[in-house]
TrEMBL record:
Protein name per UniProt: GNAT family N-acetyltransferase
Native species: Chitinophaga agrisoli
Domain of life: Bacteria
GO MF term list: acyltransferase activity, transferring groups other than amino-acyl groups
Entries under InterPro entries matching the protein: Acyl_CoA_acyltransferase, Bact_Acetyltransf, GNAT_dom
Residue ranges of every copy of the N-acetyltransferase domain listed in the record: 1-146
Keywords, alphabetical: Acyltransferase, Transferase
Amino acid sequence: MTVKQATLHDAAAIAVLFDAYRCYYEQAADLPAAEAFIAKRLRNEESVIYVAMEGEQFIGFVQLYPFFTSIGMKRAWVLNDLYVLADHRNKGVGRALVTAAEQLAKATASGWIMLQTHHHNTNAQALYEKLGFQKDLDYCYYYLSV
């Protein structure tokens, strides 16, 4: 397995994984929209995506979005998406992708990486906690749909 930073050339292959990821979270499949979304993020340099590959096959990805922490006066990253094909889970793929994300954060002198996952995704929670992420018990998060 290898992990590399994705380029616009990889958008179609990533879109297949991204569409499956969205379906996991009960969204309707829409491969053309998934590809357009991923391509736009890469083209506009609005996210950083790492892909895990076995040979030429894309088996997982992680997508991070940059932002800034005013209190820490540093860049920070949101690890927004992490997905590994079912046949490749529990083989270190997720760990390798999160490690790439951590290396990005260190290379960009960032304060931290933040993520959220669904309460039912206990496998992901176990991975994140094993890799040193800590559940935030101090802050409440609110959303406003627009």
